[in-house]
Amino acid sequence: MTGATEICPGHELSEILTEPRISDQGGLDITAQGWIRTASEDINPTVATYEFTLDEIANVADWNGQWVRYYVTNDCGTTYTDPIQITVHPEHNLVLT
């Protein structure tokens, strides 16, 4: 997974997150895949998670400090990317004098 981890309010997560390429399916069909969010990088991603698509996030400011990772599942199990933390910068009123 590639992507910056910083974003400004009013922008979309799809601007900083890129879905990873699955380089090996383990000889089996993919049965599930997608993004998940956790409140900590240490939480087992199968517990206390929120599954989402990049298109459904309306208010990125709510995601400040949250951890996201991508998962892929086949009949033998699930693999996760490393977690990345989202940082939403506060809005700034730029002033030129």
Question: Would you mind describing this structure in some detail?
Answer:
The chain is mainly β and 97 residues long. The chain is 0% helix and 29% strand. The chain has no helices and seven strands. The strands form two sheets. Strands 2, 3, 4, 5 and 6 form a five-stranded antiparallel sheet that branches. It has a two-stranded parallel sheet with strand order 1-7. The N and C termini lie far apart (41 Å).
- How does the helix and strand content classify structurally? mainly beta
Distance between the termini: 41 Å
Largest sheet features:
5 strands, antiparallel
Rg, alpha carbons:
16 Å
Question: Overall 3D geometry?
Answer: elongated
Alpha plus pi helix count: 0
* Count of extended strands: 7
Helix content range: under 10%
Q: Return the string of H and E elements.
A: EEEEEEE
The average pLDDT score comes to: 80
Q: pLDDT below 50 for ≥5 consecutive residues: which ranges?
A: none
Give the percentage of residues in beta strands.
25-35%
Describe the SSE topology.
Elements: E1 6-7, E2 32-38, E3 50-52, E4 67-74, E5 77-80, E6 84-85, E7 87-88
Features:
single chain, about 100 residues, mainly beta, five-stranded antiparallel sheet, two-stranded parallel sheet, 7 strands, about 0% helix
Summary?
The protein is built from no helices and seven strands. By secondary structure, the protein is an all-beta fold. A hairpin with a 2-residue loop joins strand 4 (67-74) and strand 5 (77-80).
